[in-house]
Amino acid sequence: MVLRLRLSRVSTPGGAKRHHPRYNIVLAQARTARDSKPLEVLGTYNPVPELPVGAEPGDRKVKDIKVDVSRCKYWLGVGAQPSDTVWRLLSMIGLLEPKYLPTGPQTENVLKAVRFPTHEPRAATPAQSRNDGPVTKAIKDNTRAKADIGAGTTSPMNPNEA
Amino acid sequence: MPPRISTSRLTQPQTCECFRSRSRKSPSTPAPSTRQFHATARHGTRLRRNMWEWFQGPGRVFREPLPGSTNYLSAYDKQGNLLRARRNQQEDPEDQDELDQDEDAIVQRELDQGLDDVERENRAIDRATKRSAREEIEERGGIPPERQGDMRPYPLNQSFKSQPVLSEDLREQLYVQVVHYRHDVSSVAATFGVDIRRVAAVVRLKTIEKQWEEEGKQLAKPYAKAVLNMLPTTPFKPETSKPITPHEPINDLPVHPRTRQQIFYPTSESRQFTREDAAKVFDSKLLPADQRIPLPMLVDLERWKLQGLGREERQKKQREMDDAARTAIETAARKKAAWEASALRTVPGRRWDFKFEDISAEKVGKDGRGRQAVGYRYGMPHEDRKRGMVKIPTSVE
C-alpha cells in the first residue's frame, strides 16, 4: 500500500470548529481515513492567513507552516506520495519540483526556489579527506566520479571504473 | 395653587424660542450694572475689606512666584516674610568671614594653632560644604533651598508633603543616556537615582515628544513650564561637582501578593533557613527576594564593600559582571539569528506570505505524546485518573 504525505484536519485545540481549519502534515497509509491516527506527524499547517504576534501596522499576513524538512525529504526519498496541497507547500521550500508551473519566463524563477542550507549536501572538508583510509577514499572517489558522469553504470569488478 | 414665586424673579427667559435663534440682546433683561467685585470698591463688608488688606499686605508675595523655588503658604509667616530667609540671616557672621578668606591662609592659621591632621581635615570638609551651600544660595538669588516644612502646600494638612518631580534637564539627560549612549535602563536608573519604571516611562514619553516635534505638532510647553515652576524639581547640574541629585529610593523590594500571608512554618533547628527557602514556602514559583529586587547589582556592590574590597577591585568586578551580561545578550541574539537563518523561510505569495519553520518531528517521543512536540495530537486521553496508573513521581528534586 502506498504511503502518502497529506494533510489531516484536526479538531484540537479547543474542540472541533467550523470555519477554523487546522491541519497536521502527516505520513499515512493512502487508504486510511483522513483523520485517523497517522504513521507520523511531520508538521502543522494553518491555512488561515494571520498577522503574526507583535506585528506592526502594514505588515503582511502569514500562513504558518511547521514542517520537519529532513524527515519529509527522507519519506519522499523512499517513495511516499505527496498530495497536491502538500506538494505545493513542499515545492515552495525546494523539496520538490513544482507540479504546476506558470508558463513563460516566470518558470525559471519558480525553479530557483529557496532551499534550507542545513539540508544541502555538505561539502567535504579537507581535514576529513586527509583522515580517510584507502578504502573509504576509493569509495568516495568512485562516488564523486559517478556523480560527475551521471547515473551509476559501474563495473561490478572495478569500483573505480566509471 | 398658583406658584408662589413671582415671574419677575425667574431668570428663565419668557419665550419658548430656541436659544440659538433668539436675538442676543433681549430688551426685557437690563444691562449688567457695574461690578460689585472691584479693587477700588470701598463699600464692601468687613470680610471683603480683610481680603483686600491681605491682597495688598502678606498676600502680595504670592502674585509673582519665587524663581527656582516653590511658593507655598506654609513657607511664609503671617506678615508675608519668607521664613527660611530669616533663618539664613541668623547665621554666625564670623563663619561668613571665614568662608571669604583664602584657603591657604586658614590652613596656615590652623597649623599655628597646633591642631592635629584629623581635626584639620574635618574642618576643611566642613568649609567646603558650607561654601558649596552658599554658592547654591547665591545661584537662587539669595534664597536658601526649601526645607521639609516649606514643602506643605496645604497649611492645615500637615502630613501632605509636595514630592519633587523630574526637571526638564534631567528628563532629557535620561533620554540621551538610554537612546544615544545605549546604556541599559537599569544602570541609568542606578546612576541617576530614579526608579527603573520611571526611567522607562521618561524614555517612552520623550520619544513621543520628539516624534511630535518632528511632525510639527504643537506642544503644551507653556503649561508644562508653568507647572514645573510651581513644583519642587530634582535638578540635573552637569557643570558642577555634584551633578546628580538622587530622586527617590530606587531599590525597594516590591511586595509580592504571595508574601502578604502570615505562615507558621515549622522547620528543624539544625536547618539553614535562607531567603530562598522562605520564598519557596510562600509559593513554589516565587523567586527569592535577592532576585526580585529591582537592581540586584547595588546589593552586590554593598556586599563587596562589607567584604572589604578596595575601590578598584569593586570596579573591576562590576565591569566583569557588565561584560558577562553584555556577552550573554549578544550570544543569545547571535544564536537566535543563526536559528532564524537556518530554520525559518518566508515565501512571499500574492496576498500573504507563507512562513515555513523547520522543526523536529522526533520530539513526540516513544509513546507519541511528548509535550514539546509540534503537531496536534491524536485521540489519547490522559490516563492519570485510570485505575492502576502509578502516579509516583519518577524524580525527586
Automatic annotation (TrEMBL), chain A:
GO cellular component: mitochondrial small ribosomal subunit
Cytoplasm listed as a keyword: no
Residue ranges, annotated region (Disordered): 118-162
Domain of life the protein comes from: Eukaryota
Coiled coil segments of this chain: none
Keyword presence, Transferase: no
Matching Pfam families: Ribosomal_S16
GO biological process terms held by the UniProt record: mitochondrial translation
Bias-annotated ranges (Basic and acidic residues): 138-147
Gene3D superfamilies: 3.30.1320.10
Gene Ontology MF: a single term: structural constituent of ribosome
Keywords: Ribonucleoprotein, Ribosomal protein
Polar residues biased stretches: 152-162
Classification via PANTHER family: 30S RIBOSOMAL PROTEIN S16, SMALL RIBOSOMAL SUBUNIT PROTEIN BS16M
Family to which the UniProt record says this protein belongs: Belongs to the bacterial ribosomal protein bS16 family.
Database matches in HAMAP family: Ribosomal_bS16
Stated name of the protein: Ribosomal protein S16
Higher taxonomy: Eukaryota, Fungi, Dikarya, Ascomycota, Pezizomycotina
UniProtKB/TrEMBL annotation, chain B:
Region (Disordered): 1-43, 131-152
Biased composition (Polar residues): 1-15, 26-37
Annotated GO CC locations: mitochondrial small ribosomal subunit
One Pfam family per UniProt: Bot1p
Entry GO MF terms: structural constituent of ribosome
GO biological processes: mitochondrial translation
Domain of life of the native organism: Eukaryota
Composition bias type Basic and acidic residues, residue spans: 131-141
Protein name per its UniProtKB record: 37S ribosomal protein S35, mitochondrial
